[in-house]
Amino acid sequence: xxxxxxxxxxxxFGFGLALxxxxxxxxxxxGPAFLLLGLYLGTADALIGGIIVLVSVALPxxxxxxAEPWLSHERFAWILIGLGCLMWGIGDCIWHYYQALGxxxxxxxxxxxxxxxxxxxxxxxxxxxxxxxxxxxxxxLLDSLIAMGSLFAIAWYFLLGPLxxxxxxxxxxxxxxxxxxxxxxxxxTCVVLLLLRSWGRVYQATARRISLIVVGLGLCFFVTSDILxxxxxxxxxxxxxxxxxxxxxxxxxxxxxxxxxxxxLPATSAALIEQRVRRRTKRVIFxxxxxxxxLLLGILFVVLVLDTLSSDKGQLALRPVLLFATIGxxxxxxxxxxxxxxxxxxxxxxxxxxxxxxxxxxxxxxxxVASTNIDNTIVACNPAFEKLFGYTQAEIVGCNLDELxxxxxxxxxxxxxxxxxxxxxIIHATTRRRRKDQSLIDVELLGAPVVVEGGKVGxxxxxxxxxxxxxxxxxxxxxxxxxxxxxxxxSAFLATMSHEIRTPMNAIIGMTGLLLDTSLSAEQREYxxxxxxxxxxxxxxxxxxxxxxxxxxxxxxxxxxxxxLRECVESALDLLTTRATEKGLDxxxxxDDQVPAAIYGDVTRLRQTLVNLLSNAVKFxxxxxxxxxxxxxxxGFIEHVPKDAxxxxxxxxxDGLPFHDLHxxxxxxxxxxxxxxxxxxxxxxxxxxxxxxxxxxxxxxxxAISKRLxxxxxxxxxVESQPGVSSTFHFTILAQTASARPRPHLDSSQPHxxxxxxxxxxxxxxxxxxxxxxxxxxxxxxxxxxxxQEALAQVQAGVPFDVAVLDMQMPxxxxxxxxxxxxxxxxxxxxxxxxxxSLGQRExxxxxxxFAAFLHKPIKPSxxxxxxxxxxxxxxxxxxKQVGTQFDALLGQRLPLRILLAEDxxxxxxxxxxxxxxxxxxxxxxxxxxxxxxxxxxQSYDVILMDVQMPEM
Length: 953
Hints:
Blueprint: H1 2-41, H2 46-62, H3 73-101, H4 110-126, H5 134-166, H6 171-199, H7 206-235, H8 247-264, H9 270-279, H10 292-309, H11 319-364, E1 368-373, E2 378-381, H12 383-389, H13 393-396, H14 401-405, H15 408-422, E3 427-434, E4 440-452, E5 455-465, H16 467-516, H17 522-553, E6 557-558, E7 561-564, H18 565-582, E8 586-591, E9 598-601, H19 603-619, E10 625-636, E11 648-649, E12 659-668, H20 675-679, H21 690-696, H22 702-712, E13 717-722, E14 726-737, E15 757-761, H23 765-775, E16 781-785, H24 788-796, E17 803-807, H25 815-823, E18 833-837, E19 853-856, H26 861-871, H27 891-894, E20 899-902, H28 906-918, E21 923-926, H29 929-938, E22 943-946
Parallel strand pairs: 6-11, 8-10, 15-16, 15-17, 17-18, 18-19, 20-21, 20-22
Antiparallel strand pairs: 1-2, 1-5, 3-4, 4-5, 7-9, 9-14, 10-12, 12-14, 13-14
Helix pairs in contact: 1-2, 1-3, 1-8, 2-3, 2-8, 3-4, 3-8, 4-6, 5-6, 5-10, 5-11, 6-7, 7-8, 10-11, 16-17, 16-28, 17-22, 18-19, 19-22, 24-25
């Protein structure tokens, strides 16, 4: 038998050590396997079971994502439980060691390990985190001591006492025999109380609760085995290795299983916790764990009364222990009751403080609030509610809320809201309620149920008076409607005024033009020119005012059409060329290589912005130059083009082409602007100062319109200036690249011009830079000279130039003088000369010097390209054709048309007929739309020229 027992112990150690390694590597496989192995091998495996309990406790806690420190309460509690199991296993091994030697194992050193299990597990259970605060832990300790004392007294009277009196063992054996079953009592009591308390806590984790149940089940095995062992030991019939002995290792395995389950059971979700909170009942406030101590004390008193009434003299020896145990339990109950009273007093004070806080908050709350019970009867309201509805507190409390403040026409709605609130809905609505004086007020209603411990106990309603707000909204709506009507009237006025003002202006300007084409005396021509210039100035002012009015009214429409950007800039410069020439100013422009050739946008509005800035630059510049520069930054592909909400954009197909942020700068060398003056720029009808208006004229609308146009085109406008030196006006627009037509003068491959040396003579550095940048891409070799002396030095040095470009107006030596000097050199007598001038060719007396070409400033690449090609005898199509200003008198013969003129203004009729007559056409006239329809019934026409606004139609 001894050899068989040693074999079982050895097998137990071997399998146990192997399972420890499995547990360290992955306990989810080792735990259940060792549980089955322990049941098979018997009590000798208790040591290994204790170690496995420690591993099963330490690993799961350590793997909880490090959410708690290493020595937390919960971790330390489970370690104590594991140590208790381990000590019991050591004691069990010592027990079997004595048995193997044939010695009595009871009492022995094995009892040290056995006796360590109850206090260690008891401390571990007390440290479980479920009680929460230290006060709750003290209550748990008192309840455990009360239950332990009561159960001990009962067990002593019915079981342990008789066994102790009947025992003939030595005192140590008798003490140990009573200690083991007695020590199990507090363990079971503590587990039961923990479980009861955990069921009263809706936030208690399910895994922790199940772990406690499993630990309690393991302790039940211990209690059963201890009681049976004590009974059989006293009777002298206990035999080791029987089924009773399997209760202890089974208990350890089950305790380990409880720790093991915490690792793999899912955590309680927030939704489940919320559901438990809603289902809580009053049992949570006064749960069964509160009754357990008093129930056991009552049972103990019943036992004490039965003992007193009993006539069995054999029980007299048990009465002192029963009596002292009852007195101790009563004392503990008194201490617990005192602690409970203090806790309840604290809770009462806290609840009273919260109630006062709530009442104070309700009293100062400006929103009307009323609370009702489950029957919708008002139980309380705040002063704001009394003030809003005009009732007193006495008149309000006890009344039905809907009947009190709902008028008959809104009673059904109020009842429906109350029904929804009773169903748990939160109501937020705008409605009307009745005051005491029967007047109706507009209110914003918020109603919600009051839920206490999972059940509805009433409702509350908040009423915010929005009568003034609603009246203000109605006033705003009326104002908006009036503004829309005014805006429509303004639009109609603008359309009418635009037509009515432009009609006579068109007649004045057109008739003046016709007058200037006739034979006039010098005085008459001077008067006619004054009329035309004054008419042009007046038309500019009218256009500015009408444009500004359209912008302010949000009626300005932006077109989105593809156009050539360079041509737009050149056309703007062309409009200012005459004025700049009269003042002796140089006009020039620079386009960066990154600037797209063509873009989508409104060419008219972009040209208008450029002309406004150029006009100001020429106006305020007495000498020097005015230069436009254009740069571009590619922005990629943009789904939505930034534009002002008031602009109507006519979209065109531009898919697949990137957007560019175009930066325009107009720089002059004029009078400059001070910091105070720049603060007044871009304001409507505002200029730098009054003296500027008197000296230079103007309405002060040009910059305001230009800045608004830049913003409508997705950009902005700003200015940089240095008084007395220069000013630079910047603006940006966002535009999409468009497909450009071929332009040979911009093609970098020009075999006819490649390698040609070109001499550029101009005192203006900007003009020299422009010419250099224009000729270099064609492969030409530019040589720049800032004066005639420098140019003569280059010619005298024998540089073989192929062509020379000379500026007409230069200090010290103008272009004509330089040309005469160049012709004196033998190597330059055949050199082609190109003159740059701001005057027409017929106005220059060349003095016999032959020039290959005359170019007007600002220099356009197309003009320079054509001139150079003609110099080098290349037959090429001109890039730009000069549009004639004279009427073609034979056009009517080459292209006969039947024309109908629809115009109600007689002056404009005469103007149009005269212009058509000069082109060889005759036209029928209709004064309104109805006459047009009648004329179309009589015959058909090839062209109908119509005025946009006419009477009748």
